[in-house]
Design goal:
Number of helices: 9
Distance between the termini: 11 Å
Number of strands: 6
Bound molecules: D-malate
Strand order of the largest sheet: 2-1-3-4-5-6
């Protein structure tokens, strides 16, 4: 029997962003998001360890981990820290490189915004850049606005300080699919191509007409590219 697919969400959403794919596996809230409140974690490695603990609690030994954007950062850290638990990777709209100075400034602005105006305002500031069309923005905003502002801050700190995962890509031997929206302006096609070249066992799939949240904007094409045929 093949390993289950575990979905890890992007920022500033929670597992509900995988609604259109939910029947294909199980979506887990990262620590602090959705229903997994409680003590916050502030590094990508700690998010990764926390997902492994959740897999333990659910009796899952090995999983195909599908992470979008922040979820992809966590998936790469899970592979580095818990390799034997990973049966495959789906790296969607994500990248291996760390934040540059401009991105770090954006994190600082969003930390202030999360505390002063709330997580909904953090999403509003991102929406024009992360979506190819604004059709899904209201539903996504509802999910974002329901998050704990301090969990948003913790995730921003974790993403700001995440290590460069580039050197680890060549060590990935499990089957890997790299998926990217053709209009992704946060983690664009060039990042996806670099990852696909560095990972020996990877295939690259471009979702035409989708932005950064390709699973939400083009659910059928995403399913075909990322989920079919494992
Ligand atoms: C995400 O979608 O998870 C974020 O845009 C990732 C990031 O800000 O680096």
């Amino acid at each position: 029997m093949r390993a289950p697919i575990v979905f890890l969400h992007g920022f500033p959403l929670d597992r509900r962003m995988w609604e259109a794919q939910a029947d294909a596996g199980m979506a887990i809230d990262l620590r602090g998001f959705g229903e997994r409140r409680g003590a916050l974690v502030r590094t990508i490695d700690a998010f990764a360890d926390d997902v492994i603990a959740e897999l333990d609690a659910r009796g899952i030994d090995r999983a195909i981990v599908c992470g979008l954007s922040m979820g992809g950062y966590v998936a790469l850290a899970m592979h580095r820290r818990h390799r034997t638990r990973i049966a495959g990777l789906i790296l969607a709209d994500t990248k291996a490189t760390p934040d540059d100075d401009e991105a770090k400034k954006g994190r600082a602005a969003n930390i202030v915004r999360a505390r002063s105006e709330g997580p909904g305002a953090v999403f509003d500031a991102m929406a024009p850049k992360v979506l190819a069309s604004q059709e899904h923005a209201p539903a996504m905003r509802t999910i974002a606005a329901s998050q704990d502002p301090e969990a948003i801050v913790a995730a921003l700190e974790a993403m700001r300080d995440r290590p460069d995962a580039t050197a680890e890509l060549s060590a990935i031997e499990v089957p890997t699919r790299i998926v990217v929206g053709s209009d992704d302006r946060v983690t664009p096609l060039a990042d996806a191509e670099r990852m696909a070249r560095a990972i020996g066992n990877a295939t690259l799939h471009v979702i035409e007409g989708a932005g950064h949240f390709s699973n939400i904007e083009r659910p059928e094409a995403f399913r075909h590219a990322a989920l079919d045929g494992w």
